[in-house]
Amino acid sequence: MTQDFPLPQHSRIVATDEDTLAMAAQAIRDGKLVAFPTETVYGLGADATSDRAVASIFEAKDRPQFNPLIVHFADAGQAALEVIFDDRARKLAQAFWPGSLTLVLPRRKDSSISLVASAGLDTLAVRVPDNAIARALIETSGRPIAAPSANRSGTLSPTAALHVELSLRDKVDIILDGGSCTVGIESTILDLSGETPTLLRPGAIPMEDLAALLDPIALPGNGSAIKAPGMMSRHYAPSIPIRINITPENRQRGEAYLTFGPDAPKRAALNLSRKGDLKEAAGNLFAMLRALDMPGIRGIAVQPIPDVGLGRAINDRLKRAALGLEQSGRPKSIPGVNA
Ligand code: TXA
Ligand code: MG
User: Rounded to whole angstroms, how far apart are CA atoms 261 and 276?
Assistant: First the structure.
């Protein structure tokens, strides 16, 4: 897909093959930053065992240091060297890995993962991605890879190599191109470090699928301390205002209308899924928000999206994108802007 665009000069994007993979793996071992595709979104990866390498992720993204990173592994066995799996965690890992489920688990005392990655917490967020390039990079480098989404903090997550280039420019050493992400929305984060499993971030694995294996699952809030430090504020945001749950009658002049489903007005700007398929909509979400974030468009109005299955993750991202914009359309500065 990136080949359709003229690449910026000095592009860091490389087509992924055996040679570039070996080069990227060496770069990881050398403490450099490598952006790579996962099935959810592109990650900005570094050697998770190196304080310095991990610190440079925070610097490149302009990410607050208190916001911990997800560490990616080639398989569950490698993850089990760093965190403690209980029966619940084993069951979920077996059902959903490799895949788009991140588990927050207690860190092992002798874990080799940098404390900078987990922001000093005694838990660690771990996942085994379902993308061959991602797993090959982890395997070839021989290191667990800490990786947040490969975008500047607070902006839309990247679902193509070019998005990474445009957001991070020369702050990343290599961008492995793996085409468009097949899922297109971030992983679901489930905290299993306490007694009650708690959903910290709705994402690519619908909560209904988790609840089929593990019941009950709590939503964070009332009483439970906020445990995903980056999930409190405006995030995933384009630079223009977003209004959500807007029916066709309530659109405003100058706004682009992002719709969903077969009954949407035909003249709307873009449709997340004309078939009304939530999976397709999740895959299109970030790329379409990005496409509408352009001069001449005053804001984006989004048609209501059903709040079930993947719709929950879509609505979560839209709500965060819509948060905290002043009348002028500029983001308020909110401490703790995520990822
Ligand atoms: O799909 C994804 O999850 C992508 C790909 C690259 O794997 N990664 C991603 O990372 O979305 P990031 O950094 O953008 O979001 C990670 C979230 C943050 O909200 C962070 O606060 C939370 O995970 N998190 C990380 N470690 C945690 C921990 N130990 N306890 C609670 N939350 C944690
Ligand atoms: Mg992020």
Answer: 4
By the 8 A CB rule, do 68 and 114 touch? no
Whether the CB of 125 sits within 6 Å of ligand 1: yes
Q: How far is the CA of 200 from the centre of ligand 1 (A)?
A: 9
Q: CA-to-CA distance for 88 and 212, rounded, in angstroms?
A: 12
pLDDT of residue 239: 87
Gap from CA of 338 to ligand 2 centroid (Å): 7
Q: Which residues lie below 8 Å from residue 228, measured CB to CB, with a gap of 6+?
A: 104, 189, 191, 200, 201, 220
User: Which of 34, 135, 149, 193 has most ligand 1 atoms within 8 Å of its beta carbon, as the pocket-test mutant?
Assistant: 149
Q: Angle at Cα 215 formed by Cα 197 and Cα 124, nearest 5°?
A: 20
**pTM surpassing 0.85?**
yes
Instruction: For residue range 33-50, list pLDDT tens digits in order.
Output: 999 999 999 999 999 999
Ligand 1 centroid–CA 100 distance in Å is 11
- Residue 200 CB–ligand 1 contact under 6 Å: yes
A 10 A CB-CB count for 253 gives 5
Ligand 1 contact, 184 CB (< 6 A): no
Residues 236-246: pLDDT tens digits? 788 899 999 99
Q: Report d(CA 94, CA 10) in Å as an integer.
A: 42
For the beta carbon of residue 241, count every other beta carbon within 10 angstroms: 20
